[in-house]
Amino acid sequence: MPEIIEQASGAIKSESRISSNGYAAFQAAGALGPFQFDRRNPGPHDVMMDILYCGVCHSDLHFIRNDWGMSIYPLVPGHEIVGRVTKVGEHVTKFKEGDLAGIGCLVDSCRTCDHCKDGLEQYCERGSVFTYSGLEKDGVSVTYGGYSNNIVCDESFVLKVSDKLSLPNVAPLLCAGITTYSPLRHWKVGKGQKVGIVGLGGLGHMAVKFAVSFGADVTVLSTSPGKKEDALHLGAHNFAVTTEEDTVKSLAGTFDFILDTVSAKHDYNMYMSMLKTDGVMVLVGLPVANVEVPPFALIFNRRSVAGSLIGGIAETQEMLDYCAENNITSDIELIDMKDINHAFERMERNDVKYRFVIDIATL
Questions:
Q1: How far apart are CA 104 and CA 123, in angstroms?
Q2: How confident is the prediction for the chain on average, in pLDDT?
């Protein structure tokens, strides 16, 4: 394991900075290793948290490798953060020391554009600030994520976490949860609808739980026959293996709504054939390769293909409250910080049920 590397900024450390420890990627091809850096001291509207648990998202791996061409190194991943408040600014009203709290994929936005005013901060017209590998609104400071011992964030982007649920299992709700909850709510998925969930990974297993909870008839669409038992255990009503030609044909025109959670390259057109007239397929997985959609597949059945990005802060809080009321959490495997690189290797092999979560006490 490499020695702890201190942030090299050329600037003299100020007493107004908070010392932090974490794990970082230092280049696109490298493994994560220990990293010491500074965070800002909490301002009047800020909340400071000791991080207890942080989920491991497939997006973390994309950022580490700079698959999307937007990574800033050193890069401390992690946007599924649950912790306990240790300090609040003098104007903070929503939190106090000792409170449980969470931080998801966003830590700021312009707050004044139409999208922000509508509670859609993830679509901020002037650019949202991501929890890691982003630039703060000062245009200079880099954000560092939850693979670390603490974090400072404006209270407007901090979420209340219930003590009714297991905290390690709550952490993935801050990304995997809201990423699947939001489109299901936006397209008003519920009773009387047939819903297909493509993929049964970190996102897919949460999509199954929510869609079933909302009253839909749910089918998991998977290339892995071995996942049938798990899909039914999670609450799915049906399971279909999409490598079987006869199965795919039998599902033509079946679904009102399909949520595609897969982040690897795959055939979107096959799934579109399963939509009814006026059916909608929503993409939440982010493959690196572009997608080709033939117009005939859309036009002749008035089908729609759409995308959805996480959710706004108010909707994320709504989702957390819903989960607390309905006892919904993520299925996880708790890991030590030192095992993160091995966890990434396993994640690429789909060898996780269904989300790795880091116990930050092991940092």
A1: 15
A2: 94
